[in-house]
Design goal:
alpha+beta; L-fuculose-1-phosphate Aldolase; 45% helix; 14% strand
């Protein structure tokens, strides 16, 4: 009887992992279709049971992933299967710093990156100009530049975790994490949509800001809504 239960449990775990692999492929296609990724850019991961994670492979366009392509890593950095993204260190840093993290998305949303190139002095997107930034993310900080694929990328994330689930990586891309893959992907959409609105506002004239009392009220609403990206 015990053996049968173990076999059924293993079967469920295998089926669940297969579904998660498919969901990562779907997320990659969604990001690719929104022009958040070009060529082989970006990476997506999802945490499994037993301190393991699925992560997209290196050198493959994320709009054309297949479930069998996924790599598997242990949270200690050991590669268990496949050839994981060269930027896996960022993902590992998020999972180690954020116990709630179930999924991490790294993409290259154009408008978000453009802000970090044009105005490198900024510490975050100007949330005070747009209510949805405050309500959906609280704030979207800029992480100092680090050379892609290096340990420094993970180290630079540390001061922003776990407080922030949406981050712009200066001169590089953006990173979002969530308690589900859907939250992380939605967060990436939020990052670039907000960056695009603010970019258009500057093109039309100049950024204007909400009154201080309204900003305080929005921050109080955000605190009541919780930490998830919306």
């Amino acid at each position: 009887m015990s053996r049968n239960l173990s076999e059924r449990k293993l079967s469920v775990e295998i089926n669940q992992e297969t579904q998660w692999r498919r969901e990562i492929c779907a997320a990659g296609k969604r990001l690719y279709q929104k022009n958040f990724l070009a060529s082989c850019d970006g990476n997506i991961s999802l945490r499994l049971e037993g301190e393991r994670l699925l992560i997209t492979p290196t050198g493959v366009p994320k709009g054309f992933l297949e479930p069998s392509m996924m790599a598997v890593m242990h949270l200690n950095g050991e590669v268990l299967e496949g050839k994981p993204s060269g930027e896996a260190l960022m993902h590992l840093q998020v999972y180690r710093s954020c116990p709630q993290a179930r999924a991490v998305v790294h993409a290259h949303p154009p408008h978000a990156i453009a802000w970090s190139v044009a105005e490198p002095q900024r510490k975050e997107l100007p949330a005070e100009a747009l209510s949805e930034v405050i309500l959906a993310a609280g704030a979207i900080p800029f992480v100092p530049y680090a050379r892609p694929g290096t340990q420094e990328m993970g180290e630079n994330l540390k001061p922003f975790l776990p407080a922030h689930r949406a981050l712009i990586l200066s001169r590089h891309g953006a990173l979002t994490w969530g308690e589900s893959l859907e939250e992380a992907v939605n967060g990436m959409e939020r990052v670039d949509h907000s960056a695009q609105i603010l970019f258009l506002a500057k093109q039309l004239g100049a950024l204007t800001f909400l009154p201080e009392e309204e900003i305080r009220a929005l921050k109080e609403m955000r605190a009541r809504m919780g930490e998830k990206l919306l």
